[in-house]
Design brief:
With 383 residues, this protein is an alpha/beta fold.
Length: 383
């Protein structure tokens, strides 16, 4: 393996390569974020299967619940703070902070949701093209996801979050026809795109929506052969849907990202399996990140991993992504941690590049959307 450049040098090199435009599809929603202690968790655990186990293991998890269980949980807990949610929403918001013109698909034009996108760099499709998100809002109610954040302590080994939802817009993968029509005009000038949200679908809905999504992805690629698309994996609520996404979506994208809680095994077997279907795989964890690629050199992977670690670290400590100017001044230090052990020869002997980066030394105050933020920063600087 080639000896990597220093962490700081990699970060600064990647910062200069960030893309100017990108699109983000498909899911966006309103997150209601509530700090959770063990007493509260025990109170609502009858309505949220797996919550106590998630806290005990320090693992993130996402589930769908009934409307009755959702309402009862809200009644028993304090009001949450309102933030942008959904993988597409999170990534578009954070990319805009980095100066990227972000074309966002949203299943909801609720003013309560779109008013949170204060930057004019987050664009939503209108009748005559894309407009700043806050100018496209209506009076509808937004889809809401409940985010229960728990902190590292005696009862849990690490900080994480538990997500519960009962809304039907995102799990139906409602594709906005205005977005489909208008993004076709922009695709020739866009070289990076992000898709996500398949983890919320039932197998039935996936099969119903598969033809439309596949046609859209292939159409974008035909319009712009230089377009590269990243798929953010997510915690699939159905193992069958996960297998369908692996079969039908993964081969159409150029990169896939996931964390240690989102796949059955984060060992080399999972990475090998994904690399059979796509070109680049990135694993992001709270302590480190790994990237494997059949397309990019190790030097490029290292740069983008270091940059993404700093962007996600900033968000974890401040609750929002940085601007490029803020990022330049951070002075983050990497954790002193070694790469996980695995048989590199199994992959590197096949002409696959590999890079490792530690996460940055911070005290995390926020855990929501960090994986989305990391993958966005990684892929937008990967060249």
């Amino acid at each position: 393996m080639e000896k990597p450049r220093g962490f700081e040098e990699n970060r600064q090199l990647a910062r200069k390569k960030i893309e100017k435009k990108a699109f983000f599809a498909y899911g966006a929603n309103l997150d209601s974020v509530i700090p959770l202690n063990l007493i509260q968790a025990r109170l609502v655990s009858p309505y949220l299967p797996g919550l106590l186990e998630s806290m005990k293991k320090g693992e993130g998890r996402e589930i769908r619940v009934s409307k009755a269980a959702f309402r009862k949980t809200i009644e028993l807990l304090p009001c949450g703070s309102k933030r942008v949610g959904g993988q597409a929403g999170n990534m578009a918001l954070d990319a805009a902070r980095l100066g990227v013109l972000s074309y966002m698909h949203t299943p909801s034009r609720s003013g309560e949701l779109l008013s949170l996108f204060r930057s004019n760099r987050v664009l939503v499709a209108g009748e005559n093209g894309f407009v700043p998100a806050k100018e496209a809002s209506d009076n509808s109610k937004p889809p809401v996801h409940l985010i229960l954040e728990f902190k590292k302590g005696l009862e849990t080994p690490s900080s994480n979050r538990f997500i519960a939802s009962c809304e039907n817009l995102n799990p139906s993968l409602c594709i906005d026809p205005l977005f489909s029509r208008n993004i076709a005009r922009e695709i020739p000038e866009i070289s990076r795109g992000f898709v996500a949200g398949f983890h919320l679908l039932s197998p039935k809905v996936f099969e119903e929506r598969k033809k439309v999504v596949v046609k859209q992805l292939l159409g974008w690629k035909m319009q712009n052969p230089d377009l590269k698309i990243h798929l953010e994996w997510g915690s699939f609520i159905s193992g069958e849907t996960e297998r369908l996404a692996e079969k039908h979506i993964l081969p159409l994208v150029d990169c896939v990202g996931f964390n240690e809680d989102e796949v059955p095994s984060t060992g080399i077997g999972t990475i090998e399996k994904f690399l059979d279907k796509t070109k680049t795989v990135v694993l992001h964890t709270r302590d480190y990140s790994l990237a494997f690629s059949k397309e990019f050199e190790a030097k490029s992977l290292s740069c983008s991993l270091a940059f993404a670690s700093c962007v996600a670290g900033f968000k974890a400590s401040r609750g929002r992504a940085p601007t490029l100017a803020e990022l330049k001044k951070t002075g983050f230090k990497p954790k002193k941690i070694s790469p996980p052990k695995f048989d590199e020869r199994k992959l590197l002997g096949k002409g696959i590049s590999f890079a490792f980066s530690p996460s940055v030394e911070i005290t995390p105050k926020f855990t929501v959307g960090l994986g989305d933020c990391f993958s966005m920063a990684f892929f937008l600087t990967l060249k």
